[in-house]
Amino acid sequence: QPGDWITLQLVSVSSAERAQAFIERQSVPEQFASYALERDGRRLHVVVYGLFETRSEADAASRALPAGVGEVKPWIRTLEQVHGAIYTVR
Q1: Of 6, 8, 14, 24, whose CA is between 20 and 30 Å from 30?
Q2: SS3 of the chain
Q3: Nearest Cα to 50, choosing from 18, 76, 17?
């Protein structure tokens, strides 16, 4: 997908297993994905939701997240930002 497309970052957790468990608890898990990044010498696993062409679509989705997500404050991320974060993993 193009780098200017958008996804919603929901949570960052310490293990791939925890990220996968979060995704598996969702009613429509195929709308979620995870990726790893390194920050301050630690590996984190980030769960994202959806893929949107415009910021307004992402904003609307952030206000109507599936109930299984829980109380989170999603961050809007471009795919370019996500790709850059993935490249931090060594």
Answers
A1: 14
A2: CCCCCEEEEEEEECCHHHHHHHHHCCCCHHHEEEEEEEECCEEEEEEEEEEECCHHHHHHHHCCCCHHHCCCCCEEEEHHHHHHHHCCCC
A3: 76
Q: How far apart are CA 65 and CA 43, in angstroms?
A: 26
Model pLDDT for residues 31-62, shown as the tens digit of each residue: 999 999 998 889 999 999 999 999 999 999 99
Quote the CA–CA distance of 46 and 74 in Å, as a whole number: 11
- Which structure tokens are listed for 12? 């960052």
Q: Identify the residue whose tokens are 């997240």.
A: 65
The tokens describing 48, both together, are 């994202």
Number of neighbours of residue 63 by Cβ within 10 angstroms: 7
